[in-house]
Amino acid sequence: MSAVVAKGQRIDHLSQPKKLPDAYQEDRRSVYWLDKLPTETEGTTKFVVNKHQENLCKPKSIHNEWTGDRPTPKWEVSKAAQQAEASERVSD
């Protein structure tokens, strides 16, 4: 029973706001440089691509035996398939 109370007190303690340090200044920005601003750099990040990544960006080449003579991607349905009736198992 006392473990539950202690646990509740610990949560209450941890939920309280922490004391600010004595040197805290309200309007001071959180920065890593204190004496001067960092120098401005030109542009943005420059990307470096290795040869493997460069090859991945290229389109895939067409197979040398491909002729491209297929008239349509649609398949014709045979007369037998058009006249077929569903079995009892499928109809249920």
Describe this structure in words.
The protein is mostly helical and 92 residues long. The chain has 4 helices and no strands. The relative contact order is 0.04.
Runs with pLDDT <50, length 5+? none
Could you tell me the strand content as a percent range? under 5%
> Span between N and C termini?
63 Å
Which class best fits the helix and strand makeup?
mainly alpha
Instruction: Give the total of beta strands.
Output: 0
Q: Helicity level, as a percent range?
A: 25-40%
Annotation field: number of helices? 4
- Molecular shape: flat
Biggest β-sheet, characterized?
Answer: none
Give the C-alpha Rg. 36 Å
InterPro entries: SPMAP2-like, THEG
GO biological process, one term: spermatogenesis
Keywords: Repeat
Biased composition (Basic and acidic residues): 9-23, 61-77
